[in-house]
Description:
Blueprint: H1 4-21, H2 39-49, H3 59-74, E1 78-84, H4 88-96, E2 105-112, E3 121-127, H5 141-153, E4 163-168, H6 176-181, H7 190-194, E5 195-203, E6 207-215, H8 220-229, E7 234-235, H9 237-244, H10 252-257, E8 261-269, H11 286-304, E9 317-321, E10 325-329, H12 331-351, H13 358-386, H14 393-398, H15 400-420, H16 426-447, H17 452-470, H18 477-505
Parallel strand pairs: 3-4, 3-5, 5-8, 6-7
Antiparallel strand pairs: 1-2, 2-4, 6-8, 9-10
Helix pairs in contact: 1-18, 2-5, 2-11, 5-11, 12-16, 12-17, 13-15, 13-16, 16-17, 17-18
Amino acid sequence: MNRWPLFLATLVAGLLLGWWTIQTPTPVDASAPADQFSAGRAMADVRVLAREPHPTGTPANLAAIAEMERRLAGLGFTTRRVVTPLAEKPAQRLAKWGGNPNAPAISLVAVRAGKDSAAPAVALLAHHDSVWASPGAADDIAGVAAALEVARAIPQATQARDLVLLFTDAEELGLVGARAIFAPGAAADPIAERIGVTINLEARGGGGRAMMFQTGPKNGDLVRRLAAAAPGASASSLAVTLYESLPNDTDFTPVKLRGQAGLNFAFIGDAWGYHSPLMTPDRLDQGALQHLGDSALAITRDLVTAPELPARSENAVFASAPLIGIIAYSPATGWGLLAGIAGLLLLAAFWRRAEWTLGGMLMALGQAVLALIIAGVLMFGLNLLSGSVGAEYYDRLAALPRLEVVAALAALAVLMFLAAAPAGSLWDRWLTWVALCFAGALVAQIVLPGAGPVLAWPALLAAIAAALGARPGATGMAQVAPAALLAIPGLALGAELFHFAFLGIGAPLPYATVPL
Length: 516
């Protein structure tokens, strides 16, 4: 039987589904119902607040603060300023930009009372300052505008608890405003002690889907609430795991250091727009703003109207699954998944015991290792040829779309090599490669449980397909059809994970995405 047509059809279907999962939603215009998030309405604020660069202390920054105060008053918030003098390093950075090093950071704390102001509040956090050369339509006026639109969409009468909006200053100078509000211990602003959950809205780029990439400690119940309230949100415990090892910070960092609960959202597509003079309101991806706002509105509305906030519980393992939404479970459940994969794999091996040999499986293992080596060498070489090695950071970010296409083509070439590999029987290769994925999932479960979905979920789909194809009496198309069907969501999941991982770490380390 010629399996190539089926293989190619499956490949195309899986990659198309993967492409669909990373698209931003269609922006909703200003005529949308009042209870919906509208990028069209939020863009009115973006256009006013991001007309020009507005670093800390500039006239444009002061004008933006006054405009935010006006908008907050119109939404029923009581607002006060938190004025923070700049320390030596932030002041030096501002002076290097040409600004006034004696200008203080001016953050806004806005509160709209709910039915029980003694209950822990829910806060939306975004910074209003920009770098010196950029209007900052994405970073982070998109977050400010999204927070204002979320607050507008939630009637005050429905609030079971206070809703707090925190618009911080001098984030670009070292998180100055957020550090002042969420300082350790008694040095914090009084509002910090009143907040039960903080939701930070950020951007590193000008488009793409918003990823929930960081949480506070003991996130299990909070992540499950997110999964239930915002099934269209994108989230990954792998991103949470990776971000902890990176030297990056957002305004959420002081929140996390205080040990408080929260979620950190950001979109990171169109990386050319990060801190760029080109990042004007007209160039902001309104679909990205819509996805950020949809995700923030869903979880904020759920929390601020609920009689109780989620309890602190064991950190969850989670990821977004195509057509399903966020799947979250405890790390212990990961062991159950591995047991299921092992059981299915052993069952398939038993049913097809006459069709595989140890020698054939060793050859298949060698092919897989060779494929990974080839992929790694290709990625390393292509990165060198791209000219991004040693290039300035923002140039590497701007090159990401081109590098991602090259990386995807290299991965497809390796996949075609494996599909055409002549050594061993079908079952030598199938069982070996599923077992290899299982081994990777086992290592991840032991070392980094949050990375489990990257390997465990595809391995589970492959093991189910193997067991269905290996069942007694299955021949020809009956053997391979289950793999073809289950490979479609598996490929889509892999493509989505590859895309977000490449955006996150592809500029300095594109070859690190080879295992995906």
